Amino acid sequence: MLTWEDDVLPMIDATRNYRDAALIAIAWDAGPRSGELRSLTLGDITDYTHGYQITVQGKTGQRTIGLVPSVPFLQRWLNDHPGNNGDDPLWSKLSEAVEPSYQTLLATVKDAAERAGVDKPVTFTNFRKSSASYLASEGMNQAHLEDHHGWKRGSDIASRYVSVFAADTNREVARIHGVETEDVDESTPTAPVECPRFHQRTPREKDQCVHCQQVLSKEAAMEQR
Q1: Count of CB atoms situated within 10 Å of the CB of 94
Q2: Which stretches make up the Tyr recombinase domain (predicted)?
């Protein structure tokens, strides 16, 4: 499975433009089906409490997915996007609001993976599976996972993802009740942070705001001196 810190972020850093960075980030963050991802338009992007959300047309109908770690990357691409019409494809060519081919988009992802040294499968399907695995491992229940990924109620697929991590849930319940359990490494937060100067969301993993280059920590400021 593709993880945010070890695979997705290095791929994003290896991209050549803001579109490709946003594409990779959203593929993992939202986990949409390939067709859902590729058919997104500018009008499918709306604001919500934590940044942006996308509305996709899937097998189970229309659903809206809130974005979190991908927000800064999407914002930079929206600022550079050549279109200004709600019907324009989100994943357009860099200089005109025309949709590139599926092969072109997939090639950009594979190119980023190669330059980042990621040797795992980087199909859009694997991004979707990786997204579901991450959410299940963090304790998302089956109903929420079904809503997020567009599976019908009682989905065998969602059930399998949840059951894989059932041992982690049982361990946590035992710990709450006072049973001594093996220590489990806490997951690394993926949500962006707000730049204190620009007041926009920026990746927490970066020392500087991706929008205005404001240094975000005392440690980073000391290194620049």
Answers
A1: 14
A2: 1-175
